[in-house]
Design brief:
By secondary structure, the protein is mostly helical. It has one domain. Helices cover 78% and strands 0% of the residues. It is built from eleven helices and no strands. α2 crosses α10, α3 crosses α7 and α3 crosses α10.
């Protein structure tokens, strides 16, 4: 119950920042739209040219060009995600310092670091593709090991984006700095990040439970209008929750970085006691 209360407090603190700058919610939306465009731009020409077999009988061992195509896809996708996340974290840092960032300020922060973002996207895309390739070539036990490696990589790079925003470091040094800060200020299972995940997990479960109940009632009562309306509202609700979660996590990452480097005092919405509980030193 203590962890749940702390998680709710962290979500509330992050929301206080978002509430002051509601335009921050647009950045995850832009990220999703841009990602969908990237996916379409890669998949549509590939299928139109017949690069991929339609059935297993005609499928063979993928050639080097397939891996090159996948690597490019991973890198571009990561670039889009990191770009908008950098904009979000940068704007959040301005707000945490008492400023009033605009959407233009957020995008300008990301644009000024576009070279470093591209470099980190190459690193993240390469690691992601390697983990994917390993996962496809090992058994179930190997997949568990690969999953653990992926989790370790995610934890080690948790503060890379705030580092890219706040420090004049290249992508490799940013990864090293993120891992160093994580080792030196290890949290209670990274209560902030996991706590926000818990809060939204409960929200998603509640959404699915209510929607499922209404759909079931619509089926039993033979009310197709209720079924269609419920599904539509559930999709909208799901999209809103995903957007809100991404925004709050970006805000929390910015606050978490400030705490890790000893700059937690005076952060708008985040008290030092709350941050100390969420990210305790060893």
């Amino acid at each position: 119950m203590g962890k749940l209360a702390r998680s709710l407090a962290l979500a509330k603190a992050s929301w206080s920042v978002v509430r002051a700058d509601k335009e921050l919610l647009l950045l995850p939306v832009f990220s999703v739209i841009a990602t969908l465009l990237v996916v379409a731009s890669f998949l549509a020409p590939a299928f139109a040219a017949g690069w991929f077999p339609v059935d297993e009988a005609t499928a063979g061992e993928p050639g080097a060009w397939v891996y090159a195509w996948l690597l490019a896809f991973y890198i571009v996708t990561y670039f889009v995600t990191i770009f908008f996340n950098t904009a979000l974290v940068g704007a959040a840092m301005i707000r945490l310092d008492g400023g009033d960032p605009t959407l233009g300020d957020a995008l300008a922060i990301a644009w000024q670091r576009i070279g470093r973002i591209a470099g980190y996207a190459c690193i993240a895309g390469t690691v992601g593709l390697l983990l994917r390739a390993l996962e496809e070539r090992v058994g179930w036990l190997g997949r568990i090991v690969v999953a653990l490696i992926g989790i370790a990589w995610t934890l080690a790079t948790f503060l890379v984006v705030p580092v890219l925003v706040a420090r004049d470091l290249g992508p490799i040094d940013a990864v090293k700095e993120s891992a160093r800060m994580l080792r030196e200020t290890w949290g209670e299972n990274l209560a902030g990040n996991l706590g926000l995940g818990l809060v939204f997990l409960l929200a998603f479960l509640a959404l699915f439970a209510v929607a499922g109940g209404l759909v079931y009632a619509g089926v039993v009562l033979d009310l197709p209008v209720v079924i269609i309306a419920t599904i539509a509202l559930a999709v909208i609700g799901f999209a809103l929750l995903v957007t809100l979660q991404a925004t709050l996590q970006g805000v929390y990452a910015a606050a978490l970085y400030r705490y890790a480097v000893g700059e937690a005092n005076g952060l708008t919405g985040f008290g030092p006691e709350l941050m100390a509980q969420a990210f305790r030193s060893k």
